Amino acid sequence: MIFKNIHTIILLLTLFSLGACQGALQVDRVRDFKSKKTNIQKIVCIDPDFELLTTTGNKKTERRYRRASAKEIQLNNILVRNAQKNNLTLELVDTERLLPSNVEYFSQLAPLKREILQVSFLQDFVNRKKRKNQQKVFNRYEDGPAIGSHFSYLADEYGTRYFSVQGITTHRKPNNKQLVLLLTSPPFGVANLFSPEVDTYYYTIIADVVRAEIVYREIRRVDAPASDTNLNALVYDSFNIISQ
Amino acid sequence: MKNKKLTISKLFYFFYLNLRLKFALFACLLSCTVLSAQFETDYTPIEISGEIPPRFYHSLKGKTQIDIVLEDEGMSRRNRKDFSTKTSFTLREIFLSGSIYYNDPCTPYVREVTKKLTAGLPNGENVSVFVSRFVSPNAAIWQDGTLIVNIGLLARLENEAQLAFVIAHEISHYESKHPFLKYVRKQKPANIQKRALDNLKANVAYTQQNEIEADAFALELLNRAGYDSRVGARAIELMMNDETAGGIKDVGALLDIPGTDWCADLEARMYMGQERHEAHHFARAMLQQRRAKIDMDGTSNEGLFLVSESDFARISSMAKFEVIENHSLEADYVSALYQSIMLQKIYPENQYLQGKIVESLFQLYLYKKRDEMRRLLETNQENYLTTDLSRLSCFMNKVDESTLKRITAIYLKRQYERYGSEQETIAITAAKYTKLVSGRAAAKEHFEHYIKHFPYGKHYLYAEQMIND
Amino acid sequence: MTALISYLNKGRWWTVDGGRTTINGGRWTMDGLLWTILLLCFAFVASGQTTGYQGKRLMFKTDLVSPVSERGINMGLEYVVLRNAVLGLDFSLTGKQYTQRITSYYDMYNEDPPIAASIRDMQVGITGQYFLNTALPAPKGSYVFGKYAIGQADIFAVDHIMREGEEDFLEGFEINNISSHQFDLGVGYQEVFFSFLLVDFDIGVSVASLFLNNNESELLPHREVLVGDFARKHGPNIFSLGVWRDTPGGIGLSMHLKIGILLF
Asked: What's the pTM?
């Protein structure tokens, strides 16, 4: 039976190898973080970043930076639009539109952004009962990483206790799969020949300044460029998880 | 008669001048006394306020190119444009990070010193000076003339001439277009492979030849401006070594807490990998070589201060406090603790320092409890280059949770009894510590204490939330 | 639904037992099975973080390859039931024509019969897609899919009649209401354009069976062989590799290029 249908089995294996899972998502949040319970209405997003990295040896630095800044404006619009679709108000503080009078950015938001990124790197979420070694896609924890409580006064000034740091990093790599794919399955090989090898990372970290902890952290990787449709899908899904 | 009138008016004039001088001297003395008295008892960290300065603001619009005029140095137009863009974006990132002070007391002083050095230089007007929050004792210049002096450098140096030497050295790099030449060198295919190692040897990003040239030209600039050029060697020595080293043998004894004498036997150890270790030693060897080249005998009290001695003393003291504040902001609690303890020897009654010690101990205990101490120490390992700091970090790594808890508890209790109602940091840290150790119910009393004594404090909403939870 | 049940009744591994269709020796009734599937679908819809593409979850798609390769249509409705899973109902109608190779006719005229045989197959199926990229929720990205379809087929073919003393001739015959089953397994990639336009490409292995024995009218044994000869190509829409077990119907490669819209 097996030998009779060996060609079918080989065909199936080839097909499944083509559709290998490429992409990852991890969401960490504290147990209390649930918008229906906490009633999140507004989030202040501190200067979203858009970074274009390349390891292809392409030296067109200027073009890359210009594209990154154009993309950053695009990302800002996508963030605000998709937050609205999930009934969230996103107050976006963008350094591109900073005015000389916006001194609060340097005295309040830039230090908060640094603190959020720093603490997120230095501390993990802690589960009091058991420290889980195996990470799932969606994780619930007792305690989030602790940020400084001296930012709590910002809740009064901005009308919300939730402040977020969001951003996109794309990594363009040398395309090294062409030959194998061209030999095994020409249609996919040809498609691969013309599509660049790009990884897109999207991250969101939300801090509750009143409780002085990071309540939500999400990182996702997609093996596709940061196109409008991809970003819309990623950002909508992210806000959907936050607002559920 | 006329002569008499003239004499009277002259006398009056002299008297008036004298009065102005006396008044100025009195004001200066008063401010020094007030400032030193302020440092004796407390310190308020510099907070950025006021309108964003124009130059600063334009840097934020870094996405519009900054103009760097360069002659063709064997580079294509595209490469020169790339260099210009890179410089522009690096500066943009630095400015946006909130690491640059403005409308602060330090920057005008450093600018005055720079002005003395750049007078008469062809591109001198292009040099614009900023003071950064970075704690490493160094300064850096970019090809557009942006000179960033780290607060760590201001805290380390002993006189204005030494500061002038470091600034002059950076200006020399700028005048000789070293940042651009460095970029040209890195663009050569053979050097691309070495970039990773170059990054590790960040301190020696310029070639040693460039550095020696810059040193020689810096001494010339010092002489021209009227500074004592013999301070160069001492400035390099201070940048290499922390003079306070040798102060720590036993952490417990230092904080007057018994039972931790075992840590005196700990061997100071670097956490950094072999490559980083080598890079660090290589950089030190290079500095030694530079120091030997410009070492001159003799000292003099002339030409040490041209702008203001009292201003330097004030800024130097402020910088020492700011370094602690910035260590704390960068989550380098081991350095913050160490520097606070060292500065406490000069200002034993300073509440700010007590607050920082308490806060640093609490944060270290928190990281220990969360099992993240190793990650914290490894992240900040670049700062633990002196033997003392290395030993302290080693202690923090090895000490068990209960011992650290005991040290924190004893020291916190002692300070809470003394300054609990006056010092905000101590009051909130006591509440946080109790919450961490005994739970929210037990900490309620401390949070209420905070709300009662600091109704306008920055932690107010946090304390209120903790009571209501 | 009635159509679906009537198709299911023509299946081979369940029996008609006192007017009620049962599976696995009477443990499951057919209606019960369908209701369970539907309830499960609703349960999936109600739970989990189902996002869809910007909140849109219902899709209508139609295949562009089928009209060309099978002279038919293939369309379906799909719904995002979990963040990475899509369930769909699929309808297809094919009318593929085959050149018959009748040995006696070929020996005599050295050519194939001028009248082509055809299989008209109408199928209704259930599709399940699992999207592989956890970071990008369905319906965007690459996926693996499985499809099970059942239907009713009508076959038209010709027979070469040779009788003594008479001139040979070709006689057409029809076999109606044949129960057909098809199973597909493969991978695909779906992209969304302008937030509403879908382009879906999939490629997979198709296995089809035509149950001639289930037909009520008696079939001459040699006609069964005649049908079996071309019916082994039935099923896959690109090329057939051979016969799947002993029943007529082929195993091979299928490919679809669908366009569709995200409804809501």
From this structure: 0.81
